[in-house]
8-oxo-dGTP diphosphatase (Phycicoccus elongatus Lp2), 152 residues
Amino acid sequence: MRTCSRQEALIPRGASGRVADVVLGALVRDGAVLLARRSPLKRHHPDIWDLPGGTVETGESELHALARELREELGVDIEPGSATHLYRVATGAGGQRTELSAWLVREWSGTPSNLTVDEHVAPSAGSTRDLPEPAHPLMRPALEAALERLLR
């Protein structure tokens, strides 16, 4: 594991040997990635653009949690076979450590819309080359590198 700061670390794929705490989905179509603006009332990382997703529940796989979260938040059904793991990021320290796992999703059905107004202000698609600053500093370079590698 390469540590980038005392509170954050980029984790090599599969290195932790466990299911992540939080899953995120980069829904990508025609060179655009779908982001959701977090509600300004959120306790963690309010009012920023982020990948949609959420907490992995006990007994869920990461893909099952991702499919459930994207259905609940955006009203889309992902095609699990189209999901490719992008990266893992660990944030926090000690007992407050959280492991995030991001996935690239290329196929889904339904039109993304904001079904959780307490979570997000609005979803919006933008160019993968023009991403806003994410919640965690390591996420942007990891996402850009993964998207460049996978979308060539």
Confidence is low (pLDDT under 50) at residues 1-16. The helical segments are 62-74, 139-150. The first helix runs from residue 62 to 74. The radius of gyration is 14 Å.
